[in-house]
Amino acid sequence: MSAPVCLTVDHLRGPGDDRLLALLDRHRLRTTFFVEGEHGASHPRRVADLMARGHEVGLHGWAHEAWAELDEATAHELLARGADALAAAAGVPPTGFRAPGGERGVHTATLLVECGIDYDASLGDGRTPGVLPEGIVSLPFVWGHVDGAHYLRPEPAAPAEVESRWLGTLDRAAGDGEPVVFVVHAHVSGLDDDRLAVLDRLLARVTSDERLEPLQMSELARRVRLAASPSTRAP
């Protein structure tokens, strides 16, 4: 069975967006963007363009708050406001969420269920997906698969080093069949030619290796929920 690979994009900030979108188009890859609610409100045409290209849009907070530090009432208000803004821009409500900063906080899983969100793409149990007790699907990432964790540190990693690590990740996924979630940012990887070339070669590998299967996050969530359903478990 092929290993699911999700190349996800955080933010919709302008610099680098067009180059990253052109790269995705060249590889005929439709992926998942996590967008702040305020950007849906201020740039609805950009969100609509993502949808028209075949991408899906998940919620990334309202204005990239330190999500894990929010109290329950504030988190609820920002979730509702952000989801409404993205729904108005995209034409459909978001089904996914990724907490700004990565950590969802103690209240978020319950609030996401109440808001009709199907999956959470924040930090979790390593790379292992599953269904949380609250009923929401967890599709976690790890920091080693985030471009900013390599390129935004005080001494940035060389693109060749990141490429070697990420291609190694794909090698292991091709062997064990476990899902991999990458997180990239247009303003981190889209503006630098060498970093963008790393993504180009990464996508070429994902789309050409029959042991790997590029997926949008909503499809991975559907499969995880189906696998966890009692009716699909072996007796």
Query: H/E element string?
Result: EHEHHEHEHEEEHHEHHEH
Radius of gyration: 17 Å
**Unreliable parts:** none
Number of helices: 10
Task: State the secondary-structure class.
Answer: alpha/beta
Please give the alpha-carbon distance between the first and last residues: 21 Å
Strand content: 5-15%
Q: What's the β-strand tally?
A: 9
The overall average pLDDT, rounded, is 95
Q: Main sheet?
A: 5 strands, parallel
Shape: globular
Comma- or semicolon-separated keywords:
235 residues; alpha/beta; five-stranded parallel beta sheet; four-stranded mixed beta sheet; 45% helix; 14% strand; globular
Description:
It is a single chain. Helix content is about 45%, strand content about 15%. The chain is built from 10 helices and 9 strands. The strands form 2 sheets. Strands 1, 2, 3, 8 and 9 form a 5-stranded parallel sheet that branches. It has a 4-stranded mixed sheet with strand order 4-5-7-6, covered by helices on one side.
Short description:
By secondary structure, the protein is α/β, with parallel strands linked by helices.
